[in-house]
Amino acid sequence: MIKAIRIHETGGPEVLRYEDVEVGAPGPGAALIRHTAIGLNFIDTYFRSGLYPAPNGLPFIPGNEGAGIVVSVGEGVSHVAPGDRVAYVGPLGAYAEERLVPADRLVRLPEGIDDRTAAGMMLKGMTARYLLRKTFVVGPETTLLFHAAAGGVGLIAGQWAAHLGATVIGTVGSDDKAELARAHGYTHVINYAREDFVARVKEITGGRGCDVVYDSVGRDTYPGSLDCLRPQGLWVSFGQSSGPITDFNLALLGQKGSLFATRPTLFSYIAQRSDLEATAADLFDVVGRGIVRIGVNQDYALADAARAHADLEGRRTTGTTVLLPG
Questions:
Q1: What positions belong to coiled-coil segments (predicted)?
Q2: DSSP string, 3-44
Q3: How far, in Å, CA of 81 to CA of 83, rounded?
């Protein structure tokens, strides 16, 4: 028996139960791993609350990323072996001391990246990679707006976009978070608690607007995000930390300058093994060379996952947070 967090009914952080579970041997194509660290992400709260339904129903173990050691592998697995240090973004089930993972979702960790960093950067870092290199190809001519600049994805994206030569504008909710964002690549930082972010973007860009807006906030930044774009600019809605957008009007895209809009997910961008490997390799490269620094700013015991969720939703965290088993 091992310890894991399970959800028997959806709701607030209080539904996260720390309990004993059985883990079997890996079948064909699978691996058993022992977690050393587990990533905490906002998407975890969507599954916990029921906003996103768990694919296999209730009860379920939440969590999409982690790092650890391969304990054993099933038939047909050759790219990882017992004893390998690995990390993954994969199906639900990360909030556990040990788990079974489809082996094709595992990537081996380079020597220079420790387990806590790996566990906290896989989902956020690979998200930043597809946003900046695939959804919209950012370069020296790009002016972009990134909401929640002091969040986990935001701090990674700010550094990476600055390295690519972009003009990087970010929004935050406090002066402390503004300072953090500036230290992570943001050319301009807007404190939306006391500034109109639309007016400030217009001022910063001389009325032109941004080429792309990355929006993980949702309800509170819509439709303002659209007003920050230049004609034919791209609005990338990749999260909804303030709540879902329930009144999206497609006609607004035409009225506001023939805008483009997309709702991407990381899992579409890494569905093929080759895409996963390329995405992870790019992430390991920029982290390994010090271009992107991963700040694990909070850690909690796995048993304290409910407190971690409450702090995350209460915007009391910055950067990356991990859960530690044992």
A1: none
A2: EEEEESS-SSGGGEEEEEE------TTEEEEEEEEEEE-HHH
A3: 6
Closest CA to 214 of 230, 236, 197: 236
**Distance in Å from the first CA to the final CA of the chain:** 13
Using the structure block, give the residue that is written with the tokens 């054993």: 72
To which H or E segment does residue 287 belong? helix 273-288
Coil, strand or helix: which one is 240? coil
The backbone torsions φ and ψ at residue 253, rounded to the nearest 5 degrees and listed phi first, read -60, -40
DSSP string, 161-189: HHHTT-EEEEEESSHHHHHHHHTTT-SEE
CA angle 246-251-253, nearest 5°? Answer: 90
pTM of the model: 0.91
pLDDT in tens, the chain (326 residues): 999 999 999 999 999 999 999 999 999 999 999 999 999 998 999 999 999 999 999 999 999 999 999 999 999 999 999 999 999 998 999 999 999 999 999 999 999 999 999 999 999 999 999 999 999 999 999 999 999 999 989 999 999 999 999 999 999 999 999 999 999 999 999 999 999 999 999 999 999 999 999 999 989 899 999 999 999 999 999 988 888 888 899 999 999 999 999 999 999 999 999 999 999 999 999 999 999 999 899 999 999 999 999 999 998 988 789 999 98
